[in-house]
């Protein structure tokens, strides 16, 4: 019996296998495994986070830890189904330092972001999303090819370095780190607003990819 072949999906899976052998920077050394993007290979909406966290590193999947749960809540409030989005990170290996037995997150540096942009660009080239959302300054920097002042650009429509439209907003972990309830509520509302805006920007494309999957 003939099998359905989805060339883009196969291409993303091939990229993930290649990335598992990546030595473009040193971050693979201390990480458990590569954490590549996940989602439909024809997704209209493409979300980029910073890097995998402790739980993502163990599971091998992006946004499955506490920040992932916040992201799921924000997506639900924005009327978005995570199953229809492609979700990835600017950097694919978990950067951390040991404090006692705990693995504490460390922000990737410029060289690591640039080394791993090679993979991000390849994911974007296969998925060809209509709209890209940067979750946090690291993702925005990678997509823009230069530093982005998140406080100034947050929630505003942007054009990324490759000419694609998008929006930059807070990483869900910023909500976990908020200093009090008021800051938490404000940051979560900004994340939901940015995701809602991205949904509206991708509107017709989201409907088209949804129909194609149902057809
Ligand atoms: S972080 Fe990115 S560039 Fe560095 S080794 Fe991992 S996959 Fe390669």
Question: What features would you describe in this structure?
Answer:
With 215 residues, the protein is of the alpha/beta class. It has a single domain (21-210), classed as Uracil-DNA glycosylase-like domain (Uracil-DNA Glycosylase, subunit E), CATH 3.40.470.10. 47% of the residues lie in helices and 14% in strands. The chain is built from nine helices and seven strands, in the order H-E-H-H-E-E-E-H-E-H-H-E-E-H-H-H. The strands form two sheets. It has a five-stranded mixed β-sheet, sandwiched between helices. A hairpin with a 5-residue loop joins strand 6 (157-159) and strand 7. The protein starts with 6 loop residues before the first helix and ends with a helix. The mean pLDDT is 94. Bound molecules: iron/sulfur cluster (SF4). Iron/sulfur cluster (SF4) is lined by residues 19, 22-25, 27-28, 34, 91-93, 112, 115-116, 119.
Strands, helices and their partners?
Elements lengths: L6 H13 L25 E5 L4 H6 L6 H12 L8 E4 L6 E4 L2 E4 L4 H18 L3 E5 L1 H8 L5 H4 L3 E3 L5 E5 L2 H6 L3 H21 L1 H12 L1
Parallel strand pairs: 1-2, 1-5, 5-7
Antiparallel strand pairs: 3-4, 6-7
Iron/sulfur cluster binds next to helix 4.
Order of helix and strand elements from N to C terminus: HEHHEEEHEHHEEHHH
Task: Describe the sheet with the most strands.
Answer: 5 strands, mixed
The proportion of residues in beta strands is 5-15%
> How are the strands of the largest sheet arranged?
2-1-5-7-6
**What is the annotated CATH architecture?**
3-Layer(aba) Sandwich
- What would CATH call the homologous superfamily? Uracil-DNA glycosylase-like domain
In DSSP terms, counting alpha (H) and pi (I) runs of 4 or more, how many helices?
9
Overall mean pLDDT: 94
CATH top level is Alpha Beta
Q: Identify the overall geometry.
A: globular
> Count the strands?
7
Termini gap: 20 Å
Q: What ligands can be seen in this structure?
A: iron/sulfur cluster
